[in-house]
């Protein structure tokens, strides 16, 4: 006869063995029920990748057509990333109240509206109106970024959230390749006659606005399955929080440093991208069109870096890889600043390879274990992208004098990112 104590011990041992077995099974990338949703959310990363890099082509285009200096054209990036600073927190509040799906629809609507505003801007040949259109479009981008990262993180186990976000960001890199390719073909292909070139701007953005509107309509018809955000523990990812984080958000040091790191990360990105075509034109003596096509290769390097980085994260801790890539970019910036022809230009291309994993990795490290504060934290990390509004204006001042020397400035940014990956990311 088996005693009750023996049965209890056997049940306890069975539970322990089951827990060990579950822990030993590698977590899935996602689940079958989330695949359709993940496809749509991943497409959003590509959408804002196109718009972001199109801004860098517009930077050079407006220099040619509207007679702007290099530093004045930095206001293109100020309009785009300034929208991130102003829209990220309201977008986070909206998502908290209305859920992920409605957040996506809001972002796509603003994106399409901004694209359509390029029509009156082109008709008036007005840089201020173009900046308003860019600001509205970028409000949509900021909303999409605020929702897409935690949305992607919620589509599976938290242990694979780094992999999912980096995978989705790989499609952002595809969009970043498409953006300058389209821009170079439509905007840098002709002469510098303002009437013709602004007509091409109007036509291009009409098509972009129409495509984004169709995506919004299609996503409105998708049924998103109930989500349990892995960052929320037992919370509902659409806003029905059940648990409370033990600390206030700004007492979470790893989150605070993630915001700081993202500020400098996007500052370096915006400056490097904004003046890439100028570097090709002035240092390498390329035509604007040829430099624009090289920018597509520049973005291919980021795409390659994201796929390589995602694979390496299976063997190397994300923070260590982030620190190593930051060191790589410090070296690349030093080489670029020398203006040594092809040696420096190849180093410039490599900057985007090492930059590739920085944004998504900083983001995912910053929102780790924040419970119901995850959505709010996401909006602040997106707001940290304001660095992209400030840095091109400063870098443009140097670039007016010497475009190569201006590339010393991003080194400061990569030093901050290195320290975040090396030590400051840690949960406390």
From TrEMBL:
Sorted UniProt keywords: Cell membrane, Membrane, Transmembrane, Transmembrane helix
Superkingdom of the organism of origin: Bacteria
Gene coding for it: fucP
All copies of domain Major facilitator superfamily (MFS) profile, residue ranges: 35-428
Record PANTHER family: L-FUCOSE-PROTON SYMPORTER, PROTEIN TSGA
UniProt cross-references to Pfam families, sorted A to Z: MFS_1
Annotated localization: Cell inner membrane
Protein name, per record: L-fucose:H+ symporter permease
Alphabetized InterPro entries for the sequence: Lfuc_symporter_FucP, MFS, MFS_dom, MFS_trans_sf, MFS_TsgA-like
């Amino acid at each position: 006869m088996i005693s009750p104590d023996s049965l209890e011990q056997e049940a306890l041992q069975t539970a322990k063995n089951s827990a060990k077995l579950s822990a030993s099974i590698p977590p899935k990338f996602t689940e079958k029920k989330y695949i359709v949703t993940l496809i749509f959310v991943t497409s959003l990363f590509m959408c804002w990748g196109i718009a972001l890099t199109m801004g860098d082509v517009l930077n050079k285009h407006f220099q040619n057509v509207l007679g702007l200096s290099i530093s004045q054209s930095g206001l293109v990036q100020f309009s785009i990333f300034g929208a991130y600073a102003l829209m990220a927190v309201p977008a986070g509040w909206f998502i908290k109240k209305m859920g992920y799906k409605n957040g996506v629809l809001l972002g796509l609507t603003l994106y399409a509206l901004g694209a359509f505003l390029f029509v009156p801007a082109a008709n008036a040949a007005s840089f201020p109106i173009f900046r308003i259109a860019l600001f509205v479009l970028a409000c949509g981008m900021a909303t999409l970024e605020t929702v897409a990262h935690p949305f992607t993180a919620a589509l599976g186990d938290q242990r694979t959230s780094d992999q999912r976000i980096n995978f989705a960001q790989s499609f952002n890199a595809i969009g970043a390749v498409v953006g300058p390719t389209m821009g170079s073909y439509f905007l840098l292909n002709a002469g510098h006659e303002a009437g013709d070139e602004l007509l091409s701007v109007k036509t291009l953005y009409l098509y972009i606005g129409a495509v984004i509107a169709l995506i919004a309509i299609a996503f409105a018809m998708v049924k998103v399955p109930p989500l349990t955000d892995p960052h929320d523990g037992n919370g509902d990812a659409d806003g029905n929080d059940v648990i409370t984080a033990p600390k206030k958000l700004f007492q979470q040091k790893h989150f605070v440093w993630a915001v700081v790191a993202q500020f400098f990360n996007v500052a370096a990105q915006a400056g490097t991208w904004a003046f890439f075509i100028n570097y090709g034109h002035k240092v390498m003596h390329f035509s604007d069109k040829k430099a624009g096509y090289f920018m597509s290769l520049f973005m291919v390097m980021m795409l390659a870096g994201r796929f390589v980085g995602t694979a390496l994260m299976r063997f190397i801790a994300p923070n260590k890889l982030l620190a190593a890539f930051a060191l790589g970019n410090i070296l690349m910036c030093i080489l670029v600043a020398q203006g040594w022809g092809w040696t420096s230009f190849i180093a410039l291309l490599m900057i985007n390879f090492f930059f590739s994993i920085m944004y998504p990795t900083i983001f995912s490290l910053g929102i780790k274990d924040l419970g119901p504060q995850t959505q709010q934290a996401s909006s602040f990390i997106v707001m940290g992208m304001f660095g992209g509004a400030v840095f091109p204006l400063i870098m443009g001042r140097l670039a007016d004098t010497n475009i190569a020397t201006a590339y010393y400035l991003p080194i400061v940014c990569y030093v901050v990112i290195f320290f975040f990956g090396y030590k400051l990311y840690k949960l406390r």
